[in-house]
Amino acid sequence: MRDLFNIGLLLSTIRLATPLILAALGGLYSERSGVINIALEGLMLAGAFTAASVTHYLQNPWAGLIAAICAGVLIASIHAIACIRFKADQVVTGTAINILMIGLPPFISGALFLSTGSTPQIPVNKLIPWTPVVIAFLLVFVTWYVLYKTPFGLRLRAVGENPGAADAAGISVTKIRYAGVLLSGALAGIGGAYLSIGQSSLFTRNMTSGRGFIALAALIFGKWRPVQTMLACLLFGFTDAIAIQLQGVRYGGEEIPNQFIQIIPYLLTIIVLAGFIGTSRAPRALGQPYEKER
Amino acid sequence: MKHLRELLFPLIAVIAAFVVGGIFVLAIGDSPIKAYSELIGNAFAWPDGIGYTLFNATPLIFTGLAVAVAFRCGLLNIGAEGQLYVAAFATAWVSMKFGGVVVDVFGQKVSYSWMTLPAVILVPLAIFAAIFAGAFWGAIPGFLKARFGSHEVINTIMLNFIAVALCSYFTQYHYKVPGDPIMQSAPIGESAHIAHLGKFIPGLPERIPVNLAFILALIACALVYVFLWKTKWGYEIRATGANPSAAEYGGISVRKQIVLAMAVSGGLAGMVGINEVLGYHHRYYDGFSDNYGFTGIAVALLGRNHPVGVLLAAILFAILLRGGIFVDAFTDHVSKDIVQILQALVILFVAAGARYRGSLNVFGLLKRSKV
Q: From A89, which residue of chain B is nearest by alpha-carbon distance?
């Protein structure tokens, strides 16, 4: 058992937690403003695909990263317009975006690269394996600062808790919510980009494989707070790292089934949401479209 | 006249989705007319087109009904995917354990069964297993919401992943035939197979997999209608969905309705297992679902949470599902992913348009609960 816990496991935990942190922080901006974002999965896919494609064309990962941010913001704007302008149901819209982003990247990839399965391989020296990691951890503290120490953060929280009062105080609920949702697209876009041009070297169909939902779980587990959310992401990254290390390893002749380790984050989220480990309280106005009083 | 108006709004949403989808097709340099004629044109050929369309529609009718029943109670069940996996595994397990299955493993006969039951007992038992397992898996988030107030959307998402992982665990470690390279269970007993419709309909070849589960789906449509509009339980579910506090004030136990609606919803989703396991694969096949649970959301939304609407919407999406194959093969650049794109666009347009027509607001509870 001792050889299992080593520096490699630590590094792999950090690397696996990075996309989760980025997406979860994105979700945090959206949800603290009162807009449910189960579209994180789709937003990450948008970032991952765009990053890989643009990096391939321009042979420059920084251009790819910036393009991924733009793509995330673009797709998030669909969510924002539907939820804020048209007051559509936020969960339904989020689901639609997730389905859209299962289809759209392979659809474009098929036209651009004549392969719906994956984008072309990017050379190793054009990848950014560590920068997004640094960005992710820096952003945790930036987010903490923004949320609790700046007027924008105060407004964001006010709009998510009590939009009516915020509106009466002269804050534009609509603008703040747009900002929250678009920021979630930008951050989830970086998270996706890290998957395609950081951890691997191409985009494959549905490559997030549920990470957007794990990020959402981490956000709930972290009670919608930046530092706790980061810790939750590290915990989920750790279970993921363990699952990878244990693959094929036998203890006393018995293989430890991977599936049992995989379900830990999901089980923990259900348990914490039910209130067994402290209480995880959502922003009060989460999920409610804002109706201006006349 | 009233019914025609009911059809108008979904029709506009579908047309809008096709227009935007067509722009995407144009953008990658292909002809939308060619793409759409491949996508839809092949569905009406007899027998293959119609047979396969009905086969594809079967799971979508079940998941569409599942989502619709939950919607009527003000709940969003995005867990149909997990419920149908658990149910498919349960029905496969029952029809394996009681189906007298003997498999040749490296030259040795290995039994996977406890006993051999005749079809008259085994088929109903297997159907019951699917419904019960789905209902159980659906009732969990219902219970969690009723008891602890935790939101069903998050819990159903989490339970989807847990369901897939558990089924894959049991398949891999307990019920896979050793040496089988595919992640699938041992076959089910032959007495558990249900007949393809080709057996009864002249001109429909038996190779086309549309089976008795399709008839069950039609019956389910009728039963859901009766349940929701002609029984006390259904009335209470709808009352809860329309206005939970008024329902509570009127003496309805909202908590009980939430659990009941989620169980019924899960049971309906579970019936997908009948089509897939008893009627088609004849075993549990890991990852068999082509996102049926999520398509069910589109089906229910487009079908306006009414069984007749669900049936029509399921057939539309089934046409697209099959048409995707032809799009892949016979257009220059368009891939079958256009189907997913159209589905997403339909959901977006129905959801965004809902507020502008007033009466589609069925998410009474969503407005009140958090997450």
A: B351
B164-176 pLDDT, tens per residue? 999 999 999 999 9
Q: Are B228 and B238 in contact (CB under 8 A)?
A: yes
What whole-number distance in Å separates Cα of residue A233 and Cα of residue A237? 6
The domain tally of chain B equals: 1
Mutation target to probe the A interface, by most A beta carbons within 10 A, among B24, B333, B348 is B348
Q: What is the pLDDT of residues A91-130, one digit of tens each?
A: 999 999 999 999 999 999 998 998 888 999 999 999 999 9
Domains and CATH numbers, chain A: 2-273 (1.10.3470)
Distance from CA of B225 to the nearest CA of A (A): 24
Identify the domain containing residue B15 by its residue range.
2-368
**CATH number (domain holding residue B262):** 1.10.3470
Which residues from B are below 8 Å from A82, CB to CB?
Answer: 348, 351-352
Query: What's the N-to-C CA distance of chain B in angstroms?
Result: 40
pLDDT under 70 in chain B at which residues?
Answer: 1-2, 355-371
pLDDT at residue B362, as a whole number: 43
Cβ separation B344–A274 shorter than 8 A: no
CB distance A34 to A163 below 8 Å: yes
